[in-house]
């Protein structure tokens, strides 16, 4: 057998500890598959005294991650600290500049510095692998980088945040409010104490930025992602979507259009018949449309120590076999500049929920605003809200705001925004209109 591949693991938290358990349980099988042993030689974390339930006998402890990365006893540095800067960044840079292979699960770091780090890795002739950074246990990086290399990709999209999918699934199944479901997600450990990063779509955006680069051969451009989270979604929207044949998911979508590449993260109505609509709870899914293969959908756990460690192990296996691929799927000197397609140019169907004052002419005003913006309506649903508890159990009509739901045919974002601004300005609605984009899926 060839010489052992020596690993230094930076970060012994959820993922780091799972990786060490995986190596201890499946290390022999991994060695057989790779044709060489894989051994843990060094570790680092913040607190040396913490009992992590791991057997680290014979493994060298480092107080400083960058120092470990430069150690002569390490061939591969596995960065599992997290964060776009600080110790994680220092560790990865030290490893690459010392000619060490790097494996990381850190989407925040790669979204911010991925292109530059890929260049450094290439110059040093080492790997920068990050299967675990996008959708945890789902092998989407390998799929895009290798399995779909023969395709021209037109769209990549997915459910990339389990916390949001858990909240939306429970809202739909149990009719609970967003706030109730978020509180439960926090109690169950699916959401952080400060959930902003998940529910406002930033976490999805980091992963989408990497998918975009891999799918379209362009530089990573995380700052160019249109972002809308799920906190404005109500049970009324979920119910209306259900009745209209849709489900609401937080999607990250990257798509080639005539004006460039759209990168967008927003709540999305997806047809109930689509594969993505059936992904429930904390599961993730990533779908890729390729010109030759057609549509491919990968489903699996997007987070959790074991699932994420499984992806880290696949990166280890590639390096152990000497399989060194360019980090972003193509050498960095051929990556194109990212050409942003402005969100205002986005085209698609739209769901619009209005709270319309029950006044003569209100409907005609809305219809006029839509027509002025050149928007054709596929359906209009009006529900007359009734006041409960009237005499003899009979209900009387409420003459206040009534919910009205509009579904548009394909139109542009500019047109929809223009129409909604006009409707608000005419004073016929009680609240800000709700607008959710509909994704065309087969
Ligand atoms: N958890 C998941 O399900 C998941 C899924 C996909 C990707 N990821 C990514 O995987 C990475 C790790 O996530 P995690 O959930 O395992 O995080 P975690 O549980 O918070 O663990 C972080 C580890 O980093 C160590 N650390 C913090 N600062 C350090 C420093 N300055 N020097 C050395 N070590 C330091 C911590 O040490 P102490 O233990 O001593 O505090 C801890 O062991 C992140 O990039 C995350 O985005 C996680």
TrEMBL record:
This protein's pathway reads: Amino-acid biosynthesis; L-methionine biosynthesis via de novo pathway; L-homoserine from L-aspartate: step 3/3; Amino-acid biosynthesis; L-threonine biosynthesis; L-threonine from L-aspartate: step 3/5
Q: Name the positions where NADPH binds.
A: 107
* Keyword Amino-acid biosynthesis applies: yes
Q: Can you say what this protein is called?
A: Homoserine dehydrogenase
Q: Name one GO molecular function term.
A: NADP binding
Give the binding site residues for NADP(+). Answer: 10-17
Give the positions the UniProt entry annotates as the active site.
207 (proton donor)
Top-level class of the enzyme under EC nomenclature? oxidoreductase
EC number(s) given by UniProt: 1.1.1.3
InterPro entries xref list:
ACT-like_dom_sf (IPR045865), ACT_dom (IPR002912), Asp/hSer_DH_NAD-bd (IPR005106), HDH (IPR016204), HDH_cat (IPR001342), HDH_CS (IPR019811), NAD(P)-bd_dom_sf (IPR036291)
- Keywords recorded for this protein, A-Z: Amino-acid biosynthesis, Methionine biosynthesis, NADP, Oxidoreductase, Threonine biosynthesis
Entry-linked PANTHER family: HOMOSERINE DEHYDROGENASE
* Superkingdom assignment: Bacteria
> Pfam families under this entry?
ACT (PF01842), Homoserine_dh (PF00742), NAD_binding_3 (PF03447)
Q: Record's CDD domains?
A: ACT_HSDH-Hom
PROSITE patterns found in the cross-reference section: ACT (PS51671), HOMOSER_DHGENASE (PS01042)
Gene Ontology biological-process entries: methionine biosynthetic process; threonine biosynthetic process
Native organism is Pannonibacter phragmitetus
Q: What is the lineage of its organism?
A: Bacteria, Pseudomonadati, Pseudomonadota, Alphaproteobacteria, Hyphomicrobiales
